[in-house]
Amino acid sequence: MARKFTLESLDYDVDDLTEDGQKIWSRMLFALQKLDELSGQHALLTRAKNAYIEDIKNEVVQSKSGVDFAALFSDD
């Protein structure tokens, strides 16, 4: 199976690249994979951050009002 890529609207075969070109291609693929991985980590950490913010808000409300909203809405 030929590995192809498009650059400026032209298609190229990776196997036609020089050895140095193929190394650069491999490094670029590695960088793209890492970017995808980091994007997933970013989404996960953003979700965790937002959950922590909600927990802090609940703590502030509880300390000011004495009402534990987390306990009110839990299934326990």
Helicity range: 55-70%
Largest sheet: 2 strands, antiparallel
Say how many strands there are. 2
General form: rod-shaped
- The overall pLDDT, averaged over residues, is 90
Quickly give the structural class. Answer: mainly alpha
Number of helices: 2
Low-confidence spans? none
Determine the strand fraction and express it as a percent band: 5-15%
Order of helices and strands: EEHH
> Which strands sit side by side, in order, in the main sheet?
1-2
Backbone CA Rg:
25 Å
Q: Tell me the distance between the termini.
A: 56 Å
Brief sketch in words of this structure:
With 76 residues, this protein is mostly helical. It has helices at residues 19-65, 69-72; strands at 4-7, 10-13.
Q: What are the SSEs and their pairings?
A:
Blueprint: E1 4-7, E2 10-13, H1 19-65, H2 69-72
Antiparallel strand pairs: 1-2
Describe this structure as you would to a colleague.
The chain is mostly helical and 76 residues long. Helices cover 67% and strands 11% of the residues. The protein has helices at 19-65, 69-72, and strands spanning 4-7, 10-13. It has a two-stranded antiparallel ribbon with strand order 1-2. The longest helix has 47 residues, at 19-65. The radius of gyration is 25 Å and the shape is rod-shaped.
